Amino acid sequence: MLKRSYARVSIMLNIVALAIFIILFFMPSNNTLWQCCIWIAWSMVVISLVIRFKYFKCPSCGKGDAMPQWLKSGNKHCKKCGKPFEYDR
Ligand SMILES: [Zn+2]
């Protein structure tokens, strides 16, 4: 069973990080604030990847990677064993 809360945290971190990257792209890059923001954005990406590697393995075979989903459950299948990914809610 995959955890919906972790899926949402992971998705949110990706969206926020992407938003920061887009904003920073249009900002002048020669100040400390910009440097801080880029590190925050990168750490968000890293945390979301850690969550995916730690918690989003196939519950049946433990090998396939599960894609975090915001709402849907059971419509994506494991590439290794073919079982659907079920969420706890
Ligand atoms: Zn599997």
List keywords for this structure.
89 residues, elongated, binds zinc ion
Describe this structure in words.
- There is one protein chain.
- 52% of the residues lie in helices and 0% in strands.
- By secondary structure, the chain is an all-alpha fold.
- The chain has one domain (1-89).
- Helix 1 (4-25) packs antiparallel against helix 2 (32-55).
- The radius of gyration is 16 Å and the shape is elongated.
- The mean pLDDT is 94.
- It binds zinc ion.
- Residues 58, 60-61, 63-64, 78, 80-81, 83 line the site of zinc ion.
Structural topology:
Blueprint: H1 4-25, H2 32-55
Helix pairs in contact: 1-2
Bound molecules: zinc ion.
Describe what is shown at a glance.
This protein has two helices and no strands.
What small molecules does the structure contain? zinc ion
The main pleated sheet reads as:
none
- Unreliable runs: none
Average pLDDT score: 94
Taken as a percent bin, the fraction of beta residues is: under 5%
The coarse silhouette is: elongated
The termini sit apart by 9 Å
Multimer state: single chain
C-alpha-based Rg, rounded: 16 Å
Helix content: 40-55%
Number of strands: 0
User: What is the total domain count?
Assistant: 1
Which structural class is indicated by helix and strand composition?
mainly alpha
